[in-house]
Amino acid sequence: QGICQTDHPAEVAEMTMLYSSTVFDDLAGHSGEERQRKISAFIYNLERLLGMERNSLREVILPIFRYDMLEEMTSFFENRLMGYDEHMITTIEGSAEFYKFTAEQLPTAEYCTILDLGCGTGLELEEYLVLNPSANITGIDLSKGMLSALKNKFPNKTLNLICGSYFDIPFGNEQFDAAVSVESLHHFSSEQKQSLYKRLFDSLKVYGYFILTDYFAESEVLEQEYFENLRQLKLEQGISDNRFYHYDTPLTIGHEMEILKAVGFSRCEILKNWGATYTIKANKFPFNEQSFKA
Length: 294
Known about the structure:
This protein has helices at 9-27, 32-49, 58-61, 73-78, 84-91, 95-104, 123-131, 144-153, 190-203, 220-236, 253-262, 289-293, and strands spanning 113-117, 136-141, 160-163, 176-182, 204-215, 267-274, 277-283. By secondary structure, the protein is of the alpha/beta class. The chain has a seven-stranded mixed sheet, with helices on both faces. Helix 1 packs antiparallel against helix 2 (32-49) and helix 9 packs across helix 11. The longest helix is centred in the N-terminal third of the chain and has 19 residues, at 9-27.
């Protein structure tokens, strides 16, 4: 209604719904690039079916396929605040374990300083502050709503929460005993991570370390496909700015560890994995961990 005029609206609506259902059912098994081609073909054929000009339905139809529409990163998380914790815990393989496991790798020394990159609503911090309630936490996240939810979880705890991009916020030098990031860094390229990890390395104290829990591409071919799909989506949707958009572009775990070593981390090791999600520990310098944790 309001899109086109026809003498047979019921018939056209029924044909459109049947055709749409077929297209939606067929999309699930295809890569992002193939889905984009099918969506473009769907819009073209629908315009022909309705006797409309080429591309006249594009802005109307594309929002229907929301999972292929790129959203600016901050908006993506602000719009998904309700139910976010439940989603993360129930839909990601191993998440019922890896938040707790990640927390257990962080320092237990009293009043130690921790930097959390992409802290969100603080699922890992919920686990960690049980183990070390005196820890001084600095959390960085793009979403004000997420940070507000985190603050509300710990009304009696002073948390240094910073709303902004961890690519822009200064970390300082030798400020933190450890840093952590969980399910946040799989949206960025090798080049972006290299500059971030160099600043992170500098921010750690001499015996500091970084705990990274994230999911990784299972092969270099898949890694390249993720970035190519993102490029195609930006081209298709006319996105030319340099803002961050929510789309998963995980590196292989090998490439991730290469970057960490390249910026100076002396020892990187895989601690555990749950399918494609791994926990990595990167030490600034080799040392006896027990002397620090005691």
